[in-house]
Amino acid sequence: MMRCLMSIYFMIVHLFSLNLVFSHLTRPPHNLSCYHCSTLNNGDSCRYLQLNDSGVQKSCKPNQMFCSVILFRYSADSSEYLFWSVERRCEETCQEGCNTVGERVKLFLCRSCCNGYLCNYGNTGLKALPDENYMILFTGMALYRYFSFFKTFETILWG
Question: How high does pLDDT run on average in the chain?
Answer without folding.
Answer: 74
